[in-house]
């Protein structure tokens, strides 16, 4: 007897042990809500570049105390493992390359080419040496001064320290490339902010990972706590049976844990939004308990409840159809929901009758009556179809996936501040690719030709294409034999034979690059799936004619995933229509002649949600929740299409509806667009179902009160 009464507890403990490690696979990263595609992987690769692992620090003011303050902060920050001050130094391998190809890489001043009087220029050098015994010849690589003088950007310094103009002292730190996980980012973030004072500005791209993750966790915990307390209070108020409430809590918890375990086993990592959805979907699965309990299936021995089974089968079928969408977040939500409903149904349909619970609640009381309505069901069907037809023409989709993420305005302001001061605010990052390193360097050179002021790290080296173009230029200007000409004139003027040995060295072969060369040069190149990648920051807007000969990807979330998101919208719409067809076929099988009553629980919520969408852009989670509402509404349609709707059926429907509204309605209080989107559509859909119930005459008559 004791084992029988504790079956739910035993299953819960088993589920808890099984799923204890599953929580470590829950992610708060925006990447978990990105469409699955090659571009998602490219974004991960881009985040590994050194330029995304910078730390910017600034203190307002130029007084001596401000200088001392920033120097003290620098010392403290340098004690943090993984941080180092950025230095403008070149790797030895890169330095050697630039020296070897200096005559090709450096810009030649065309005004100095015609005519070139080698004898005169070398004579001038000789005269200076004779007049000044301490004369030090510095232009040993370019004695003829052919290279154009490069105008360097002014490096703002004061007291030998970097400054931001019109603001204060400034420092740049590098974060180690070994810092890759959220745990490592959080460690560095916390150590940094334990040092930084309130009047100090500091920013790093990795801060988004940490702050957004914590904002999401805080918001999710708030929603989970609010929803859990609200639902438990509601169930206690409705059921008035501590034993049933306790076992219901265990059943729902076990269903969530088992669904979580199998979902993480299937996907490896799941979004934290799935966990929030877990509580919401449990408010739907409790519907199976209400209908069994209100019809006294847990005390009296009754036959199998077909209405509940068909409602469950239709809902889970709709979720499984939607799960074929090629978008991890949506797939995870659908798979999790189907599993959670499945395990909850097993508890409420088979285990609870075995445990037995006496029906103690009175609650709402209704007279059993034939279905009568204020508005004929066919009228509502026509009205719904009309709204759906009109609304579909006005439906617009939000194609910016970033809008689903946290709106971290505080961090955005700091990012924009440094971007404006460093003149990078109007620049857009791109990732360009090639099948070989030589081709990749050629692309970097081409981009530099189109955008001379752009930041393109790889363009610092001489590409094979640039070598060919420069060699043609040198040949046309009779410069290929310049070294011999200088040597001949130097000997004639009395210079030592090797005095100009470093001048105008010309490599005869174009440079070629291997992975090991690039690594030793410490250049930013990634190798992923047989393709080489590097990046550039180009002035906005990017010239579209680059696409004709360069494979590149704009790295803003809006541009990077717009095509993928359009594809996902098409897929989800197609699968949604497929699930709708499945639901309608199930209604034909279950409702039969009372089809119009049942179908309105699909069409009317759909119409209201689409009408609601006319006031804003519809995002991917709005669309998903729209189809989920249809999967939920089918249960009520099947129950209300019975010839005689009993008082117990009406109670169960009302209680289920209140539960579902509480479970999904709390999501509208979320500050995260993804969760808020789910909550708004769910609320509109559930209120629409309530309006249909109110259309049924005498549904709320003869109540004894709650």
Outline the secondary-structure elements.
Elements: H1 2-5, H2 7-19, E1 26-27, H3 38-46, E2 54-60, H4 64-78, E3 83-85, H5 92-100, H6 102-105, H7 118-131, E4 157-158, E5 161-164, E6 168-175, H8 182-195, E7 200-203, H9 206-239, H10 242-267, E8 270-271, H11 272-294, H12 306-322, H13 328-355, E9 369-370, H14 377-394, H15 409-421, E10 427-434, H16 437-450, H17 464-476, H18 482-493, H19 515-521, E11 526-528, E12 531-539, E13 552-554, H20 557-560, H21 562-591, H22 595-612, H23 620-640, E14 644-645, H24 647-665, H25 673-694
Parallel strand pairs: 1-8
Antiparallel strand pairs: 2-6, 2-7, 3-6, 4-5, 5-6, 9-14, 10-12, 10-13, 11-12
Helix pairs in contact: 2-10, 7-18, 8-9, 9-10, 9-11, 9-24, 10-11, 10-13, 11-13, 11-24, 12-13, 12-21, 12-23, 14-22, 21-22, 21-23, 22-23, 22-25, 23-25, 24-25
If you had to describe this structure to a student in words, what would you say it looks like?
With 706 residues, the protein is of the alpha+beta class. The protein has 3 domains: 2-26 and 211-403 and 562-694, no CATH class; 54-89 and 152-204, Alpha-Beta Plaits (2-Layer Sandwich), CATH 3.30.70; 108-149 and 464-505, no CATH class. 57% of the residues lie in helices and 8% in strands. It is built from 25 helices and 14 strands. Strands 2, 3, 4, 5, 6 and 7 form a 6-stranded antiparallel sheet that branches. Helix 12 (306-322) packs antiparallel against helix 21 (562-591). The two termini are 33 Å apart.
